[in-house]
Amino acid sequence: MRGFGMRKINDVGWIEKEKPVAGPLDAIIKPTIIAPCSSDTHTAHGGSGPKVDRILGHEAVGIVDSVGELVTRFAPGDYVVVPCVTPDWLAPGVQNSRTFSHDAKPFGSFKLMGQKDGTMAEFFHVNHADANLSPLPAGVSPEAALMTVDMMSTGFHGVELAEVQYGETVVVIGIGPIGLMAIAGAALKGAGRIIAVGTRPKAIEVAREYGATEIISYKDGPVDKQIIELTHGGADKTIIAGGNGETYTAAVRATHANGIISNVNYFDCADQLNLAALDWGLGMADKDIRGSFCPGGATRINQLLALIKYGRIDPTQIISHRFHGFDKLPEAFELMDKKAPDLIKPVVYFD
Predict the structure, then answer these.
(1) Which of 12, 133, 198, 309 has the most CB atoms in a 10 Å sphere around its CB?
(2) Which distant-in-sequence residues (6+ apart) come within 8 Å of 37 by Cβ?
(3) pLDDT tens readout for residues 101-114
């Protein structure tokens, strides 16, 4: 089969591979729509370490091609939504977990692209199909469902980590697709004031539609100082959905005592997260700093699909570019890599 991926660090293109085979508990999926992610480009440039001949991609909706003999909930021909995190549900790590993201080791549940070939292929493998696949519900479009598997799940998880309460002031740093989903999730959770940090005009427009009450730009000065001035002392909760090590420091500074800093940003291996003791209240200001990975499994995706099905949210507003045809994968990947000014999230239909 053919797939698109990294031959080595900083070298992407088409790769020929054998079609994967399902184990007893597993399934082989033929994707019908996928979404390139900044994590894919990050990986291609070595952000998660060296990889050779690895097909990229971890966001997909598709059709079941084949299943193992012990799979009971799915059969060939079923239309399914595939979460980007697919735990080994027999591993000890998931027995003492909140997110099921770390089954046998840190990030162990992030198998697609992380540990094996991903979704940018004619076929891909999903472990533990009964627990890791969700049926595509009636009334939910494939592209809307596709937004649940990482963008919506990760953005909403930032809100969950922050324990957003009614009427609170929430800051979301970064208004890429995950940050936009964090804004939408904070609004659904009842946040009062939502301050978004970003500069891209299209993303700002969508941020306001999802519930951002104010937008600030890092171009206008240090983000933490702007937030402290606007809020007269700092935010209740700050969600980091983009940026670098300096963003992390600014988020801690911008959050008042008894607040929570929630990180769902994918920092680079080379980033340094430095924090002055005073910014953390000398370690005694009751500022909680939390970081977590996208939750895994089918139950999570089923819950997010229900929010779409019953009209609570339309995640397709974050889709800025649509490509048609398997051969459009390189073009869509390059768009994600170069970060065009009007880019939020591209999708590729395999038609």
Answers:
(1) 133
(2) 57, 58, 59, 150, 151, 336
(3) 999 998 899 999 88
